[in-house]
Structure formats: C-alpha cells, structure tokens
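User
Take a look at the entry that follows and flag anything odd:
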Amino acid sequence: MARRRRRRGRRVDGIVLLNKPQGLSSNAALRRVQRLLDAEKAGHTGSLDPAATGMLPLCFGEATKASAWLLDADKSYRVEARLGLATDTGDVEGAVVEEAPVPERSAADWASELAAFKGACEQVPPMYSALRKDGKRLYELARKGETVERAPRPIVISAIELLEYRGQRLVFRVQCSKGTYIRVLVEDIARRAGTVAYTRRLHRESVAGFEGARMISLAGLERAMQAEAVESRQPAWLLPADRALQHLPGVELAEGLDGPFASGQPVPAGGPVAAGQGGAVRVYTSSGVFLGVGEHAAGGRIAPKRVFSTPPAVPDGSCDGHERGAADVLPDRA
C-alpha cells in the first residue's frame, strides 16, 4: 500500500511580533500561529514563561536565519513584584516558601535600590529553569525537591527605573541582556532591601528595538487573516527578515554583484562601509532587495555570512508532496 504523503504547508517568510497571552507556553503559541498561517517552517527567539505576557518574535521561513541576532539582543520588561512573600518558582505559579516584613521605604529609596543593579553583574540561574545539569532540566530536579549548584552567569542591566511603589507592590521597567532571569532579579532586589519577593506579573515590551506597538494578539491575527485572505501584498503584521537586523549598517552592492554574493563569493564593497557587530553588515542589491548578512574581508570586500533567499512578499498557496517541516524551537536565552 502506498504511503500517504502529508501536506507540507506554505512558504511564509517574515517575522510576527506576537503579544503572547498569559497561560500559554512559547512553544504552544508558536504552534498555534504556525497552524493559523499554515507555515512550513517556524521558530521563536527565546521563550517567555507561561505566566508572562508580551513580545514573542516568531520567525517564519527565511526569517529563521535572523534568529541568532534576535536571541542575542537586549530585551525590556515591565515587572510587577509582590514584596514580603517568596515562592519556590520565583513567580505567581509557585508555592509560598518564605514570608518577611517589608521595610518602610519611600519611592526614592526603592529607586535607589533599583539603580544599584544597573550595569554588568553576575546572576545565579534559578532551579526552576530549562538549563541542564548532567542531561536533566533543572526544573525536573527542582520538582523532585533537589537543589544543585549553579555557576553564576554574566548579565548586563542597561536601564532600570521605578514605575510605582505602594505597600507590597513594586513595579519597574528594566532593559537587560540575554540570559537575564527577571525572577532572580526581583529576588535579588528584595534581598538587598531586607525582604523577599516574587514576580507577580511580567510583560515583555520590546526585543532588539522592536516596539510594542507592532505586536499583534492571537485574536487580532485570526481577524487579520480572515480579512486579508492572504493577498499578494505583504501584510502589516508580517515584518521582513531584515527588520531584525537594523542594528547592523547596510551596504548596497553594485549592479551584477548580487549573483556572486548569493553563491558565496566575496564581492567589492563598492565604497566605505561602517562596521557593525563583529564587522557584520546588511547587504542589498542595487535595487534595494535584501540579500543577507555579510562581513568585512580582505581587500575591502564583503564576504557572505548568511545568505537569504528573498521570496514573494506573501506565499501563493500550499503544495503537496512533502512532510511538514518541524518547527525550530530555539533555546531560551532571556
């Protein structure tokens, strides 16, 4: 009996800035959007805890090639801490394990406490995390009541500001590097102030310069899909891949050099090029079509680092004959 071939799904290329709802894991959110778009290939760039809400960049098709830059990017959060209580998970889903009085402090005092965390420091990852120890997730060990030693990791707090303080409620905004655990930051802030705390609410406001105004909810995406019926134009909620790379300087190749670049050959830069992170630059054709990421090479040339295949703005339908590509779930980095 012939094996039945499964539907592959359409080619969708771009980035969706999902406003992830509370109670849904990042992977589950990715799967829902992938099914909604009928997209062949997808991945998210650093997970949010199920209890957290906010910006979750979802990359589709060629845009998954930009995932590494999004994983490494700074992120900003709006954080609400509950002072005086600590939970085993560090958030609202855990069981209360400690209670302590909240010292009398003014808003100015709390602003000063927060400011002490600005800059480079080290942070010990929590037991309730997806990090591995001897092949096992730390949260699996934590659920068994086990605690293992975790090496501190370097992080950077670029900005932190007090938004509100009232009784047992502390609200602040923080911009931080990849690898920062906000739950641990809340606990460390409370400890410095002479009490305990857990993260009551966490909302990610931005990733890599993407602003929250561009986010779309699951319900909003469903409505948009129904209204637009996948037209030939690029919908406003599907951002091009190079939007994730705006921190890199751009360079436009001379006419006729796009082919050699796309085939992996270093090409003349065509003029002075400002260096980006690690010497990386965004590369475009003479007509402004995005080709990929290049890096400085000898002789004033640009060598391909990651070539992108630029498709039509929106896919034109489904195709049969291949298995659906498994979604690439990228590791939690923030």
